[in-house]
TrEMBL record:
Pfam families linked: Thiamine_BP
Domain Thiamine-binding protein: 3-92
Source organism of this protein record: Streptomyces filamentosus NRRL 15998
SUPFAM superfamilies, sorted: MTH1187/YkoF-like (SSF89957)
Listed GO CC annotations: cytosol
Protein name (database record): Thiamine-binding protein domain-containing protein
Family to which this protein belongs: Belongs to the UPF0045 family.
Amino acid sequence: MIVAFSVSPLGVGEDVGEYVADAVRVVRESGLPNRTDAMFTSIEGEWDEVMDVVKRAVAAVEARAGRVSLVLKADIRPGVTDGLTSKVETVERYLNP
């Protein structure tokens, strides 16, 4: 499964990069395949391990901010691995025939 999520502190002002970095650090240290862009962090793995990482990423932000916003989107497709890369490669093939 692939989960794309965004976690942000609320009530801490406009500059949230430091808080978001705490969440991304948890994801990167998990060892699971992941990518971070301007809007979301995507992570790939089995349900329980991915959701555990998301929970810990939220907790990392929550530790410094009393209120947290979480947006999550999941692609649940058993048996598929390397979807994080292969989905992008498929689109690129159509863009660059």
